[in-house]
Structures are given as C-alpha cells and as structure tokens.
Amino acid sequence: MRPGTRNRAPWSKWRLLFSEIMPRVDLRPSSRIEEKKHMHIAYLAVAAAACLIMALIEAWLLLGRVSAKDGPLARLVPNTKDLLSSHIDYLMMALFLFVFYGLFRVMGVAPPDWLVAAACFGSFFNPFGFLLRAVKPAYQQAPPKIFMTFMTISCMATTASFSAAGWMIAAAAMGAP
C-alpha cells in the first residue's frame, strides 16, 4: 500500500457511485401512518407471498404435467390451459399486492380494513377458480352454483379493492388530503 492512501474495501467505490446515482429509499412507515395502520397493510405482503408460493407450486405442476403426458399427474390435472391461466393470474395478483403494499407504505396512505381484507381474499381465490377448473374439467361445462357464487364474490372483491386502492394512491400522488 502506498503511503498516504487509505485502505478501502473493494466495493466502496461502487457504493459511492450508487449513492450518487440512486437516492436512498426510506421504507419505514410514513409519519402519517400510525403503527396500527402500518401493521394491517402488512397483510397485503403476506397475501402476495401466498400468491407467489401458489404460482411457484403451479409452475412445478405445469412442468411435471407437460413433461409426462400420461401418468398420475396427467390424471390429477387434465386441463393444462386453466392451470397455466391460474399460474399467470397468481403471479399478477402477487405483483399487484406487493405494489399496493409498497405504495401504501411509502406514500403514507392508510387504506380501510375492508380494502385490505377484500384485496387479500379476492387475490387468492380469484385464480383458485382456474385451478379448480384445471383439476375438474366438468366445471367448464356445468359449474355448480356454489362455485359460480364463490367466483363472483371473489371477482367483485378483487375489482372493488384494486379500484379503491388505485384511486387512493392516485389521490395521494396528486396531493389530496
């Protein structure tokens, strides 16, 4: 080492470069959200993680189903199209929930309890209908009334909660109180 130079860690120049390019993002709850409100939006992240886990399980099911045309997995999941739809839907729901969680937290928006509950419920059970149709292809032709009622409720919960979340975030971005 030359005299007069400091011994720096090899990554310190990169850390210095990135600190100039990218400002630090503070992910602590905003002062406008009290701790109780912050805790209940954490359920959005938990539901997003559950949706992501379901999508990963379905990805492995798809891989096994496509690689083995005949066998026990083919009998368990006869409809790969609906399994793929469920997989993609779970990925999208996980993305939306993670984004809503992050935006609520960073922007200091406190959504009502019904919104968090409806988003969590609808995001998990809306794609579940595709999974049931993949396992029971008869549900495509003549679905039971309870199945259709449940799917209608989950779709309405998802639509209402995502619309309200988008509206609240847009209002906060525009500076509405």
Give a short overview.
With 177 residues, the chain is mostly helical.
Overall tally of domains: 1
Just name the CATH architecture.
Up-down Bundle
- In terms of per-residue confidence, which ranges show pLDDT below 50 for 5 or more consecutive residues? none
What share of residues are in beta strands?
A: under 5%
Summarize the structure in words.
- The protein has 177 residues and is mostly helical.
- The chain has 7 helices and no strands.
- It starts with 11 loop residues before the first helix and ends with a helix.
Features:
177 residues, mainly alpha, Four Helix Bundle (Hemerythrin (Met), subunit A), 75% helix, 0% strand, elongated
Ordered list of secondary-structure elements with their pairings:
Elements: H1 12-21, H2 35-67, H3 72-76, H4 80-107, H5 113-135, H6 138-141, H7 145-173
Helix pairs in contact: 2-4, 2-5, 4-5, 4-7, 5-7
